[in-house]
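Late entry, written up from scratch paper. The run itself happened at the end of the previous shift, but nothing got recorded in the book at the time, so transcribing now.
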Amino acid sequence: MDDALTSQRAQRLPLYIGGMMGPFGTIVILPMFPELRESFNASSAAVSWGFTIYLLPFAAVLLVSGTLGERWGRRRTVRGTYVLFAVAAVGCALAPNLWVFLAARALMGVANAFITPLLVAGLAEVVAPALFGRAVGIYSSFQAAGGALAPIIGGLAADTNWRWAFVGTATMAAVLAFVPPQGEPAYHADAEARPSFRALLTKQMIILGVGVMAAAAGPIGINVLVGVTARDELDLTGREAGALLLAGPVMAMLTGPLWGRLLDRVGARTAGLAAVTGATVIAGLLGFADTPTSLAVLSAVSGALIGFVAVVFQALASTIVPDNRGGALSFILAFRFFGHGVGPVLWIPVLEQHVLLAFLGAASLGVITIATFFAVIEPRRTDLQSRPDQ
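Output as recorded:
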């Protein structure tokens, strides 16, 4: 029994650790906007594309990356894209101008599209159905840990040389390439039974996608507005802004397992309604924060609730189409990260004119997400896993 438990934990660990990569690569840029503006002689709006250009290709490729990865093999696909992610990060570190930097950031996003969905899909293969919510909660904690490290490293690099942050990113990806994840599915031996894209084009999947896109463009994508507010409105240094942005990911990291257990207990719909409602309210309140302390406290609460939302959506997306877990998760994540990419383009120009209006506008999109939970049918517990004896 102990040997079996140790083996299962060993299978999960590479999946958990790999979950750090996506949030790290996304968030590391946030504390260094002023330094990027100076290095590339660019405006805030132009530099903000360094965040958006990572997420838009990421979102676009996610529409197909999970299904392609399932067909090609999860481990082989993830290993190759870790290498590609490292190469792209080196391109960011060496970029002589903003155009090269943006091109490298876009390539990072493309690479990450093949990593993120296949990790959670693999988790569904090695965890018993009754414990899947808890496992996704732990995975979410590792994602939050990546998000927590990113502003620290990004902030420290901003105060010294921002390029070192991308050297660190490349190193992290290169190390992970030597530890491919477990959880390869066994049902693809027959070529005719391989996952198809058509299975993803259902009413339930589209509804879930719209809900997560609205949340990402609004209340669960609020960290971009927090980061810009900390630097431009409260005049914090890169290091101070990095420390402030750390509050949310740390709370998400600490509360992830709790949210997973709650999800197992009350179900995805109830958990999702509670999570999105809370995140929406706190996103609006962030617009009233006028000191570093109040912004940090509200950001910490927001981070915990954002982690809750992530747990719910990842659990739903990876179980709603059992025959193509990776494809379903990547399809839904495409909507999420399209929302994350569009959010800054929508709200940063508003923020430059009126801080409160930007936060309230972003928060209001949470109402759309709340509505979608009433239309989503939860998968039966017996559908959560194809191998329930593990």
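Residues 186-191, 381-390 have pLDDT under 50 and may be disordered.
(Scratch paper discarded after transcription.)
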